[in-house]
Amino acid sequence: MATTTDYYATLGVDRGATDAEIKKAFRKLAQQWHPDVNSDPTAHARFTEINEAYQVLSDPERRQRYDVFGSAGVEGDPNMAGFGGFADIFDAFFGGAAAGGGGRRGRPSGGSDLRYDLRITFTEAILGTEKELEFPVLGRCETCEGSGARPGTQATACPQCNGRGEIRSIRQTMLGQMVNVTACPKCHGDGKIVETPCETCKGDGRTERKKTIRVSIPAGIDEGHQIRLSNEGESGPRGGPAGSLYVAVHVAPHPTLKRDGTELYYETSVGLAQAALGTRIIVPTVEGEEDVEVKAGTQPGTEIRLRGRGVPHLRRTGSRGDLHVIVDVAVPTRLSKAEREALHAYAEAAGEIVADGGGILDRVRDALG
After folding, report:
1. In which element (H, E) is residue 105 found?
2. Averaged over 352-367, what is the pLDDT?
3. Bigger pLDDT: 8 vs 87
4. How many domains does the chain have?
């Protein structure tokens, strides 16, 4: 049966890789993608793939079934479902104890991430700005300094998990002993119990408050971009690390300028005589109005490029796009007698054949002056 998941490619090793090579590849990728050390939103899913690949390829029997039957050979394997997860695999390779020994000590839970929707003007998005944000947040309790315990007391080690924050169980399988790790139900993974809660925060270590911060909006930011501010989210319970604040940027449209990436566009029109003889027009830019020359003989759809008047590149300092002025030529739908006579004279001089005299309504208007 064909393989649907290439575990070798996931770890970046050849099919003939040795156990040592597989282990080395896993260590490198785990250090890079473990959610505890990588804040990328895709880190969790990526580490899950790496973890699954290692579980299969590090076990001789499962690796043999996978090599013969592909993913179908290991689907439904109870050993896959019973594996302890991120904490176990991370501890096994990066300083924790092996199964049956000590383990990762309980750590307070982290605080929640927050989202702030910020609306800015078109010009602020192009040139950059600084904004003051105010929002409600669960912050560290000042009475107990975040511990959750009444002042003068302190939290004690959880008696159920002995301060580890996790419960480990060992079960026998056809392949040997497997360790299953779950968060301690009594202390919820913290490893500590607050016997005498703080009266202000009721043992949570956090209280509701208004938080005010200033954030710099980089020049060139666009609609839908997000700015991540680490440790500016909610504080974790009982002294846990704070989450992040994600500032989602929304940009108000400009009345005349249109944006496409780093390029700006402005559409305008000039009259027949202006296009033929040349003129000057006023063009709006994000820095203010600019006087621009329209050369004689300009054709409909002509583009005048103002270099460096567009949007700054977010990742290339000093680099900026252009402002494109698209010039159309307005053809009048109504002409006065003098205008029509002048155009007839031009047509005669240019040798152009035009309609003779205009319509009945034009003649009536001419007669009435």
Report:
1. none
2. 59
3. 8
4. 4
